[in-house]
Amino acid sequence: MDRITTIRSRTVVLPATNIDTDQIIPARFLTTTTRLGLGRQLFADWRYAPDGSPKADFILNQPAAAGCQVLVAGRNFGCGSSREHAPWALLDYGIRAVISSEIADIFRNNSLKNGLLPIVVDETTSQWLLAHPGSEILIDLASTTLQLADGTRVAFPIDPFARYCLLNGIDELGFLLQQQERIAAYERQHEDN
Amino acid sequence: MPKTMFQKVWEQHEVAAETADTPAVLFIDLHLIHEVTTPQAFDVLRQRQLPVRRTDRTLATMDHSTPTRTEQVFGGVPVANTAAARQVQQLQSNCAAAGIELLDMRSSLRGIVHIIGPELGLTRPGRTIVCGDSHTSTHGAFGALAFGIGTTEVGHVLATQCILQRKPRTFAINVDQKLRPGVTAKDLVLAIIGQIGVEGGTGHVLEFRGEAIRALDMESRMTVCNMSIEAGARAGMIAPDETTYSYLAERPRSPSGAAWERAVERWRALPTDAGATFDREHTLDAAVLEPMITYGTHPGMVIPINGSVPDRKGDPVFDKALAYMGLRAGQPLRDQPVNVVFIGSCTNGRLADLRGAARLLRGRRIAGNVRMLVVPGSQQVKAAAEAEGLDRIFIDAGAEWRESGCSMCIGMNGDTVARGEYSVSTSNRNFEGRQGAGARTLLASPLTAAASAIRGRVTDPRELL
Hints:
The complex is a heterodimer of chains A (193) and B (465). Chain A has eight helices and seven strands.
């Protein structure tokens, strides 16, 4: 996995609350057996009309969204299913961080394991970001701060272990594999369960 | 110090406790896998030349994208979707190569992954259970700690039988009194989600407690825990008791003999100790609840069946949801015309659910304009239903009787609701497009679904009981 240190980008804003994983990538696209190419189906039912043509009024189809790497969304982003296809689709499209005042548990876990930063901010910061689409922000993972276009710096929480892995490009499976002796010892004592 | 059930199960599975810098390494007793969320995980194991550590603690089945038409499951009729067929083939080859037991397309034990774990006796109190599916919370009905994981984590568990986790907080849902006739576990859990909200449980493990919960049979308890994730919770749990033990005593893969005695003794120590505290609590009265139905695009947008769609003037997200649903603020949902009725899913696809629906449909016919699908949660549920003649009741009423699978809950296999159509569904999600692009889902109990099928409009089942 690539190292992440900073992300500087304009934001693209989806103000809806409770954006669920079926919106991020509808279930009919989950028959894939790879993790590549899912960006085409990101927000498919919001992005495309039934005949497959892009909907002009959807933000991702507008020139302003081109090149944006940070998605700002309403509260409780990523609720619903455990499909890792959701962060895969966002990353494949080019999104590298999602900011919301609340991010659903499984989506957050899945994102961290793929190098997509799930950033939870306070309600005031969230409202400011929602009200200022296209503003440039700087995310600094080393200092776990977010710098807004007006210079305001906001700290964000992130699990220290996930942060360490992301900063160093380490995947968590390597860490787990180092625990094999302890796992074997546990197994010897707990075969009843 | 008194402990919650969650704390006990968590501590019993710590291979390494969490520290400030590292999450806990948690041992997983049972890993359930299916076709949709595993191909990429097996790819990682192959790339890194890692074996599956515990094939004996892994069980595979296929449910999400599999057909439910008998001629497709058992006949020579090909599966329509080649991508789905390829996914199923990959699961077959991955399981064969790793030596993982697969309950394959034509197995009499196949079914929705959250239905078969319990019915086989693999879902047990005190176990940690994971699956690449958010409704893994279902298994918490037995006092297991069970939660959905992503595909990367599926790979972690295949390779190490462990998962890295930060300890969630605890949240007690106390349900006093008892549900009244015609009001089911589905109505209860929808009411709970309506009260605490679809993000109310985020970061928490719920424990459902109280008189109403104790009075529920295992199948109803599974319905309640199944939808914990719809409140945003990591997991939902119910303490094991005699109801749990008598359910498990009859299961083919439950421990037997002296091992059973030892297991029950361990299980009796699991319930939350008197005096243990939860990070949060919420209390409600089951006796005042009515059948519930959703009107919007998430499960928290729910009202009693005789209520009206709320008015949140000026909330654009709310108005957008109503526009998607084709409903107006202030209108009643009762008598809303219905196009499709779906009975099934890991929420309501068990024998008790089918019996409830059949009780209403016996000797009646569904309305002429309604298409009704009854999809048993597993092949064992199907066989049991047929043994008591439930299939005849559904077919005589005008419904389609199918082979088991996730079917119209997620619409991956071609069982979908058409754009703009209204579906009264016993499944768990009413998200936009969940049952098909443009489909409008009204979540409800099997009783409400059956009653609505008969009248062709949203109906309070108590009028037909």
